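Summary of Year 1 activities. Much of the first year was spent building the evaluation harness for sequence design. The harness presents a backbone, in tokenized form, and records the residue chosen at every position. We chose the following record to illustrate the format because it has been used consistently in internal testing since the harness was completed.
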């Protein structure tokens, strides 16, 4: 979790772009949510992080839908927390989308972490 938030902070800084990070804890009992909150704080991304918590494991589709509902952004990039994809792909995908749809902008980042039961 720590590496994810540190790499996203670096990606936001290097790209000159801001964004929000929505993390969905799908019913885990291993302290994922607490680790994510601590990692966001350590990386300086607590104001860009939104946390959603399911009481029970509801599966990937439910997690994706809960994350999408919690987001304030116009553009969503789905990204597993295990860093199987490079974080520097996020702004590249955003740039490609902006080029294909001129005049569209992402909404401002919503401030403050919030835990929700989705």
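For this record, the design step produced the sequence shown next.
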């Amino acid at each position: 979790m720590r590496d994810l938030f540190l790499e996203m902070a670096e990606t936001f800084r290097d790209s000159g772009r801001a964004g929000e990070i929505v993390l969905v804890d799908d019913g885990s009992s291993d302290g994922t949510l607490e680790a994510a909150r601590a990692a966001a704080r350590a990386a300086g991304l607590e104001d860009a992080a939104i946390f959603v918590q399911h009481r029970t494991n509801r599966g990937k589709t439910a997690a994706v839908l809960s994350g999408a509902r919690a987001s304030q952004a116009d553009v969503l990039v789905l990204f597993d927390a295990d860093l199987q994809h490079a974080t520097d792909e996020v702004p590249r995908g955003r740039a490609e989308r902006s080029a294909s749809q001129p005049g569209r902008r992402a909404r401002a980042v919503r401030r403050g972490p919030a835990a929700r039961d989705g």
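Confidence is low (pLDDT under 50) at residues 103-115. Quantitative recovery figures across the full test set are reported in Table 2.
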